[in-house]
Specification:
Helix content: under 10%
Radius of gyration: 14 Å
Order of helices and strands: EEEEEEEEEEE
Number of strands: 11
Strand content: over 45%
Shape: globular
Structural class: mainly beta
Number of helices: 0
Length: about 130
């Protein structure tokens, strides 16, 4: 059963904006969605998948490359994770994946170890 699914990807000109969402479903998240930390990863062409943003109990975290341009948020009532992407650049072109997981002991609440993954959605930014 697919429990996380991304949507909102597509093609956009450089400088434009896109909004992604990641909807959770299934028994795993019915009563416990708010307990999971949530993460966004991206995988650019010919490169490995990498983390760029997460949201947990006490706040959010971003890599320097997206800080100030991307905003991560969540709606626990809707069991949905969001990503607002502004000022997009061609180098943002990638497949974007959402994930839900847990925060290991002694780690900040935004440090999220993925357990469940979405299928990914393609984002293409043209110059």
């Amino acid at each position: 059963q697919v429990q996380l699914m991304e949507s909102g990807g597509g093609s956009v000109q450089a400088g434009g904006s896109l909004s992604l969402s990641c909807a959770a479903s299934g028994y795993t998240f019915v009563f416990t969605y708010s307990a999971y930390c949530l993460v966004w990863f991206l995988q650019a062409p010919e490169k490995e998948r990498e983390w760029f943003s997460s949201i947990g109990r006490d706040g959010t975290s971003y890599t320097d490359s997206v800080q100030g341009r991307f905003t991560i948020s969540r709606d626990n009532a809707k069991r949905t994770l969001y990503l607002q992407m502004n000022s997009l650049k061609p180098e943002d072109t990638a497949v974007y994946y959402c994930a839900a997981g847990f925060t290991p002991p002694l780690k900040p609440s935004t440090w999220c170890a993925p357990r469940y993954w979405g299928q990914g959605t393609q984002v293409t930014v043209s110059s």
